[in-house]
């Protein structure tokens, strides 16, 4: 076992504090990663505050991990010491179910293991990236291309793949009109990726406060959802709306913006249930759907795609002792667009 410094939530809704945790010995197929940067995802806050239900404590959040391999197990073939690597939301899965065999480990039905707030196959709590080191099976590690610096690459491990996967699945590309709902940590990546895929991109945001940013990142149009005129003007406009918002919405209003056979896909996960009049789906053969992250192969594909198109996340690097303040700023939408912890400051 290796003892490393980390920032943990000792109990639900408590502030994070510096502590130490134990990392397992490097097994035959394991990679030891010296973490350099870890992104702060809104889901870290949901889980630290038990917004999505009961959680395990102490909790070390963080599933947007970028670092350098410092040791490999005897059976490791994919990585060597010095490689630039990342770890996202998953550190294991059953590897045998239909989803795993299809490379869709995020939908594993035999029991996948999340990077934190989960129980590993060894029966121990998993701890995430707000820590100096992590030990992960090589099959759940991805390579960060040289063209991406580690700090801007870290948020791609969740925010990047969470938007890339549905945009690809619902065929965003040339000739398609795509709306990104919400211009935050996920939304800004959705704009960049949809634009790079060749779609015509519209941002739907509460206000026009971030309009200049949205246009600069690749949006063709930008509308305020607080303006009733938006819903009249854009009725029946979109092939795909990707909602990155984690607050309850008037889904009927947004479904009205879809063309026939259009899809409204949720990657934001509100803590409360939603109400929906099903006629808003029936009239127009529309789809209301959801999407999780992506599998390991697709996550690698996404990193390579971002490197090829020359972009990572838009970030603000913080010290570890600023994490609690960063959580409050995320909740008040005061970040453009992802906080990334410099792990050297733990």
How much of the polypeptide forms β-strand, as a percent range? Answer: 25-35%
Low confidence ranges: none
Biggest beta sheet summary: 7 strands, mixed
* Coarse morphology: globular
Please estimate the helix content.
10-25%
Structural class: alpha/beta
Distance between the termini: 20 Å
H-E string: EEEHEEEHEEEHHEHEHEHEHEHEHEHE
Number of strands: 17
Question: Number of DSSP helices?
Answer: 11
Task: Please explain how this structure is put together.
By secondary structure, the chain is an alpha/beta fold. 24% of the residues lie in helices and 26% in strands. It contains 11 helices and 17 strands. The protein has helices at residues 42-48, 98-101, 150-153, 159-169, 185-197, 211-217, 228-233, 251-255, 279-282, 296-308, 323-331, and strands spanning 2-8, 17-23, 30-39, 65-72, 84-87, 90-92, 113-114, 133-137, 142-143, 177-181, 200-205, 221-224, 238-243, 258-266, 287-290, 315-318, 338-342. The strands form 4 sheets. Strands 3, 4, 5, 8, 9, 16 and 17 form a 7-stranded mixed beta sheet that branches. A 6-stranded parallel beta sheet has the order 12-11-10-13-14-15, with helices on one face. Strands 1-2 form a two-stranded antiparallel sheet. Helix 4 (159-169) packs across helix 5 and helix 4 crosses helix 10. The longest helix is centred in the middle third of the chain and has 13 residues, at 185-197. The radius of gyration is 20 Å and the shape is globular. The mean pLDDT is 96.
């Amino acid at each position: 076992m290796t003892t490393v410094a980390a920032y943990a939530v000792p109990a639900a809704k408590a502030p994070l504090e510096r502590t130490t945790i134990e990392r397992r010995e490097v097994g035959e197929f394991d990679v030891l990663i010296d973490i350099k940067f870890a992104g702060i995802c809104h889901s870290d806050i949901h889980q630290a505050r038990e917004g999505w239900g009961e959680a395990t404590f102490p909790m070390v959040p963080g599933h947007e991990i970028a670092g350098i391999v410092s040791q490999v197990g005897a059976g490791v073939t994919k990585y060597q010491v010095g490689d630039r690597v990342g770890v996202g939301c998953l550190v294991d899965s059953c590897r045998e179910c239909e989803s795993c065999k299809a490379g869709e480990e995020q939908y594993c039905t035999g029991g996948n293991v999340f990077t934190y707030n989960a129980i590993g196959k060894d029966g121990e709590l998993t701890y995430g990236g707000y820590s100096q080191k992590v030990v992960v099976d090589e099959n759940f590690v991805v390579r960060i291309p040289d063209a991406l610096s580690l700090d801007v690459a870290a948020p791609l491990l969740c925010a990047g793949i969470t938007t890339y996967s549905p945009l690809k699945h619902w065929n965003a590309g040339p000739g398609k009109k795509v709306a990104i709902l919400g211009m935050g940590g996920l939304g800004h990546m959705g704009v960049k990726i949809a634009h790079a895929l060749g779609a015509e991109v519209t941002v739907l945001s509460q206000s026009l406060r971030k309009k200049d940013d949205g246009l600069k990142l690749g949006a063709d149009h930008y509308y305020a959802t607080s303006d009733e005129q938006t819903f009249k003007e854009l009725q029946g406009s979109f092939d795909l709306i990707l909602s990155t918002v984690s607050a309850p919405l008037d889904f009927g209003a947004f479904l009205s913006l879809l063309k026939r056979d259009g899809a409204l896909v949720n990657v934001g996960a509100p803590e409360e249930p939603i109400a929906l009049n099903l006629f808003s789906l029936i009239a127009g053969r529309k789809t209301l759907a959801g999407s999780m992250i992506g599998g390991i192969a697709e996550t690698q594909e996404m990193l390579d795609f971002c490197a090829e198109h020359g972009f990572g996340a838009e970030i603000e690097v913080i010290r570890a002792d600023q994490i609690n303040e960063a959580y409050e700023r995320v909740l008040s939408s005061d970040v453009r667009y992802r906080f990334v912890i410099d792990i050297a400051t733990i």
